[in-house]
Amino acid sequence: TFAPPFAVINDFQLLASLSPRDKRAGYVEAVKVALIRDRAFFETIERDAEALREFEPVAMQRLIFRCAELHLNHIATSGDPFEFGSARPLDFGHWAAHKLEQLSEYRIRHGEAVAIGIALDVIYSQRAGLIPEATSARILSLLEKLGFELFSNELLHVDAQGRLMILTGLEEFREHLGGELTITLLAEVGRGIEAHEMRVPEVVEAIRELHQRALRRSQPSA
Question: Is the confidence at residue 178, as pLDDT, over 70?
Fold first, then answer.
């Protein structure tokens, strides 16, 4: 069974045993909770981005502590610690991430998949008129500064009918939530809102935008 623990001990020395890839993978959960809960924390991550990219210990400790604090506050105050309800804001960016992990046969780490999922939902939020383009660009830029790739070829995988397989992640997420689709999108940095539908054409356009962004970044500068 799963239950909220009585306590969690964070031993920062444990980080020394991780590869750079696995250290980085944890950052995205901090970006996620900052985006939906705490604008000031997001701005702190922006200021610390270069230090975090180099795995500077003080910056990492600051990020881990506040990230854990925000997650704990949500679990303690949301009234739904066992997640019986359909609203799960801490799953921001996760509907696509879970499917990407599966499609890649878990070659893509969870954190790497969540970074892509957040990028996808941020662009969708922009296209839905919830946030301006400047905000979207700011978020994507931070994820890239931290060392994340925001596109993987699995986003373009299709089934026998030519349908993008990533889109089945929406239906699987709906089932995971017990029947009603509830997706967290962004209203602004620091505030998430609930949506009960994702318009497929706009999701596809968001995927194309991420693909084009990745192609531009891969081309050598003049």
Answer: no
Which structure tokens are listed for 5? 């623990």
C-alpha R_g of the chain: 17
Amino acid, res. 133: E
191 has which bridge partners?
Answer: 188
Structure tokens at 120: 């996808």
pTM of the model: 0.91
* Vertex 41: Cα angle to 48 and 140 (nearest 5): 70
Q: Number of helices (H) and strands (E) in the chain: give both, helices first.
A: 10, 2
Convert the pLDDT of each residue in 3-26 to its tens digit: 777 887 888 998 889 999 999 999
Reported residue count of the chain is 222
Q: Higher-confidence residue: 129 or 76? A: 129
Cβ(24)–Cβ(148) below 8 Å: yes
For the stretch 102-161, pLDDT in tens is: 999 999 999 999 999 999 999 999 999 999 999 999 999 999 999 999 999 999 999 999
Answer yes or no: are the C-beta atoms of 98 and 118 closer than 8 Å. no
The closest of 169, 171, 172, 197 to 183, measured between CA atoms, is 197
Q: Which two tokens stand for residue 218?
A: 């891969």
Q: Are 115 and 128 in contact (CB under 8 A)?
A: no
Structure tokens, 186? 């962004």
Q: How far apart are CA 198 and CA 124, in angstroms?
A: 9
CA–CA distance from 81 to each of 17, 66, 86, 128 (Å)?
31, 19, 12, 30
